[in-house]
Amino acid sequence: PVATLAHLAAVDEALRELEMLDPRQGQIVELRFFGGLTIEEIATLLEISPATVKREWAVAKLWLRRSLSS
């Protein structure tokens, strides 16, 4: 359980950093990962194209993966 809590804290910290760097990417991660929304639902909610959501989601995942691995 301690490792899980530490991992969740690291994910939360990385997400907060991402939100400061790129608020929209942070919002997309929260909506997709925690909210379970689809690409299309996020696009509608944020009034952007699904292609933009896909691109931002991909960049955000890479950024978070790098951030968490360091």
Describe this structure in words.
- The protein is mainly α.
- Helix content is 86%, strand content 0%.
- It contains four helices and no strands.
- The chain has helices spanning 2-21, 23-34, 39-46, 50-69.
- Helix 1 packs antiparallel against helix 2 (23-34).
- The longest helix is centred in the first third of the chain and has 20 residues, at 2-21.
- The chain is elongated, with a radius of gyration of 13 Å.
- The two termini are 22 Å apart.
Tally of alpha and pi helices: 4
> Structural class per helix/strand content?
mainly alpha
Backbone shape: elongated
Relative strand content: under 5%
Distance between the termini: 22 Å
Give a quick account of the main beta sheet: strands, pairing sense, barrel closure: none
Low-pLDDT runs of 5+ residues are none
Q: Helix share of residues?
A: over 70%
- SSE string, helices as H and strands as E: HHHH
Write the layout of secondary structure elements.
Layout: H1 2-21, H2 23-34, H3 39-46, H4 50-69
Helix pairs in contact: 1-2, 1-4, 2-4, 3-4
